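Continued from yesterday's entry.
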Amino acid sequence: MKRIGLEIFSGLILLLFIVGDLCGQVYLAPSDFPPPPFELNSDSSVTDVDHRFKVDQTNRVSTDTGLTKTGSWGWGYCQSVVLNETHAFIGNGRIIQKLNISDIKSIGIDGEFETPDQVTSIVVYDDLLYATYGGTLLVVDISGEGNPIQVSRNLVSPSLNKSIILKYPYLYILTWRSIIILDVSDPSNPLYLGGIGALEHVQSIVVRDGFIYLCYAGFRTGFDVVDATDPTKPLYINWGINLRPVPDFAIKDSLLFVAVQGSGNNKLQLTSYDISNPYAITELHTDTIATEADSYGVYPSSITLRDSLLYIVTVDSGIYAVNVGDPFNPVLVGKVWREATVDVPWESELSTNSGNILAAAT
């Protein structure tokens, strides 16, 4: 989106109504990772949900300041979405779906790939899609017109793979208790490089220049930094930055943006950091982006950055678009309200493309 201003944003929001087939394989990654420099918490459990309950597709249009909802899609628990110019790839329960979004008012399925467990994260690189479910990493070829074709499938962790980041040729996997780094230059045979322990309530990770940033929104708060410039020997170098719950963050050049819920629960605050030196991170600016009525909480769930626009999904009050071209003067330029019938999970994903389409996996 090259033009910035108070104008109507034409977008697609994938608002989804929420409610060991590899036994015997050898894990790609070991389980004895170097621990983080703080105490690990007790084990947690994950409850799966029915992945095929059906919700009718809707094309209801609701317009608010700067953002326009054009439709919805889904009948499963959706945590992941990736867009290119013609398709949206989503983890729809236990199915990876290739959705044709050339006409966003009439979305169609161009292909599907079923998995044994709930899809937790998706990334796309060229004609390959990388996805995680359970402790497994799946690679499929999406170049054809029909269903994706499996390239490889490997059990990489004994615990849940929560999310993945691809900085080719390195793939970073956030599991329930660790971060795993793989070399995927040969997608048919991913190679384990290194790993490091992490708390089970790490909410999200981002990667810049070989440094991994981990954020927390549970019993531990703020964010930490891991030096993985040598992917075989990742090492914690900085921790306990920002003591507020941080569910997600985004990076633009040497700036890191953190969205948090402000005092009173009805304020959305944005803080920027200078991460040009990851060993000495500097807080630059904090601003209140929006203040809603007391009945609306503004707890951020996910954020993504395209050009100078930062999109923030909140659990209770919808999606916000913020111009961060000047990090010392962020400006709210758009907002679409959350519908009362839609629940946004604590973990969700956003994706945009150059056609000004914004999709939220909720």
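--- second protein ---
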Amino acid sequence: MGNQTEKPFRTPGISLFILKDMGIYILFYTALLVYAFACPRNKTVLTLFCVAFCLLVGMRGIDVGADTVSYIQIYRDNGRFGYNGYPEFLYGWSGWLMYQCGLNFSESQTVLMLLTLGPVFYVFARRSAYPALSVFTLYSMYFLFYAMNGVRQTMACFILLPAYLLLIENKGTKKGLLQFSALVFIASGFHTVALVAFLAPFVIKLRVKDSAVFVGIFLSLVIGLLMTNDILTPFIGGYSEYLEKSKGTRTETRTIMAFFLCIYWMVIFCYTYFLAKRELRQSAYMKIYWLAILINNILVKQEQGIRVVLFFSIVQTLVYPMLVRDNKEKAALVQLALIALLSIFLFTFLSTNSAMVVPYDTLDD
């Protein structure tokens, strides 16, 4: 990212001592657990979490998130000298406008979070079977923490959830496709790669047998492990320069770690798919979830792969509540299992300081 300045270097690593720096994150986690079990459909609490999350991301300190320093510099440069074409136009021009209105970086980030995360919570309120579980999934799958780092990608990702909803609820009609396309283009104004969402209309039309679903998952992981830069470059155009950088192709050690993470997500998908009733299995949401797993596997060797996967995995915030409602077992047991599995992911990533979000502090701007 351009205009980078120096920031303190912190080595991620599993340590019990890092727990003392995770206080606010543990507090949110505990509050989400209470919400999930005590009042899972309470819309007032849902609204409070939306506001709290926007403030959490918006008011983060300069050392919270690996790219925060760069984003602060971009905000100030565009504000003082005008938008110069980087980053994408909606993010760049909105930053320029808020700078002219006298907002500091933290305030501008909070406003952008409200504008992009707000519709996600609206979808939770109107369409989620269990809004509290949707919020818990959003938090535990690290979306909020990615927003403290790759903020443009995450904001684009948030815009795509209502886009998928409009596409699916309008059943692929011309109206639905136009609404979906409009939101995808808006999302691409925050991050160009959001255009990959145009794969969704094709995927949801597929009629895939159960055997093909699992064969596809297995083959995608094999393809990902065999993938080389020469094979991948023609498909990603100008972004191929990232393959040659230190944050491009993963080292052997990191590829092994990513492989086990792929296995983890494959296990949860299989658990979800096997337990789901037939209607949920064949739903458009499940097909987009499947697409997220396929892409995650194919990009297993790419450091930036997660930034593509997020554009599809956002639907898991709706799929898991659907599973609790439409499964072959007791709803309470399924919800408990999902919370346990997602908690493992959350605390593994926090304990290794993924995305450099520990410790949390606020910005003195």
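The radius of gyration is 20 Å. Residues 254 and 301 are 8 Å apart (CA to CA). Will compare against the first tomorrow.
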